[in-house]
Amino acid sequence: MSEKKQLEQNQREEPMSFMTKVIITGFIGGVFWSLIGYFAYMFSFTEISPNVVLQPWALGDWKKGWLGHIISVILLGLFGIGAALIYATILKKFQQFWIGIVYGVAIWGLVFFLLNPMFPSIKTVMELTLNTNVTNVCLYILFGVFVGYSISFEYNEMQNQDQHSKQQTQSSSNE
């Protein structure tokens, strides 16, 4: 029994893959910032509730209640995964936080200009209040920075570990 316990103690847990970290980061970012968006809606900082994402697809008044809000937050977490995967594919090598800011603004522009016709209850940017626009731009920027910086940090850490292990392998083979 003690031999088995020693072996279990000596075993190393496999680290999560980069893609797993990207997916988790995107989901947590989507859920977290949509919850912050919901609180901003509750406190009248914005006219747009996260459950607006259900309006083109779901029928009934349930989407305006607590169930609609929960499903919306989870759905926005899934959309966050998509945004994180796009970031990881295109921008993971950049470590500057301003790349995340630009990415967040780009996502905001995509949602509020290109995808706006899909959401009939959302007014155009010009019709929305200044508070709503500023709040939403800030939420998207914060999401972009969260996802972008987290993914870039993990990618660069992985690259540094690979370089370090290659250097150790070379130094041990040279001896």
Architecture overview:
- The protein is mainly alpha-helical and 175 residues long.
- It has one domain (19-161).
- 70% of the residues lie in helices and 0% in strands.
- The protein is built from five helices and no strands.
- Helix 2 (18-42) packs across helix 3 (66-90) and helix 4 (97-114) crosses helix 5 (130-174).
- The longest helix is centred in the C-terminal third of the chain and has 45 residues, at 130-174.
- It is elongated, with a radius of gyration of 21 Å.
- The chain starts with a helix and ends with a helix.
- The mean pLDDT is 88.
Largest sheet at a glance? none
Number of beta-strand segments? 0
- The averaged pLDDT comes out at 88
Distance between the termini: 39 Å
What is the domain tally? 1
Shape: elongated
Instruction: Give the amount of beta strand, in percent.
Output: under 5%
C-alpha Rg, in Å?
21 Å
Q: Helix segment count?
A: 5
Give the % helix: 55-70%
Order of helices and strands: HHHHH
Structural class: mainly alpha
Unreliable sequence segments: none
